[in-house]
Amino acid sequence: MARHTALTLRFVQLFVGLFLYGAATALQVRAVVGVSSWTVLTQGLENVLPWSFGVITVVSSGVILLLWIPLRQKPGIGTLLNALAIGPSADLVLWLVPEPSGLPARIALFVAGLVLLAVATAFYIGAGFGTGARDGLMVGLHQRLGWPIWLARTLVEVTVVAVGWALGGDVGAGTVIAAFAIGPMVQPLMPWFRRFPWSPERTAAAPPPSVAAPALEARPTPDTPTP
């Protein structure tokens, strides 16, 4: 596959994954059985700021990226697109999907959102353009302060849940389930979304046709038919 074609398809994969990530977040919000940690904070801020859920998501991502500076983290194109794309897609799906009535419908919507979130995470990370601002914050704390990843992640997520809950964010059973389930759900999906012909691992391993073909022509053997 040509390099520019592979790069284009990787960007398509990135954008689809980011859109699905925002959609999954919106489905969890509409389920009203508890949302993931950062969404709790976004909902809490929505109670005190005159902005939509998506706008707060974009602005908070920008603030988090400022915290990368003392941690000496460098954002890539995937990080910036992550910060800009998830909020608008969440706003769109929140506009399209109404809040369901009845607990079974809410649970079903939450499960659908959780599964979609796992797929979306593996999908956009598999494109090879890096992770989002929030994951980068945890990595930066690990690299700069020497904290284990699990400790950095736990401290950050407990902090944002506490602040979001104090501001009126939706903390419930879904918050706990998402915290423990999303990692094990994403892990087995990651290899599947790195096996596309345009995936970085595949394109890096394959030799360019312009190099491989002349090499065969330069050293023909009796057992190799000439074209």
What can you tell me about this protein's structure?
By secondary structure, the chain is mainly α. It is 72% helix and 0% strand. It contains ten helices and no strands. The longest helix is centred in the first third of the chain and has 29 residues. The radius of gyration is 21 Å and the shape is globular. The protein starts with a helix and ends in a 9-residue tail after the last helix. 34% of the residues are buried. The C terminus is likely disordered.
Strand content: under 5%
Choose one word for the global shape. Answer: globular
Radius of gyration: 21 Å
Indicate the mean pLDDT: 86
How many helices in DSSP terms?
10
Unreliable residue stretches? 208-227
Task: Fill in the keyword field for this structure.
globular; single chain; mainly alpha; disordered C terminus; 227 residues
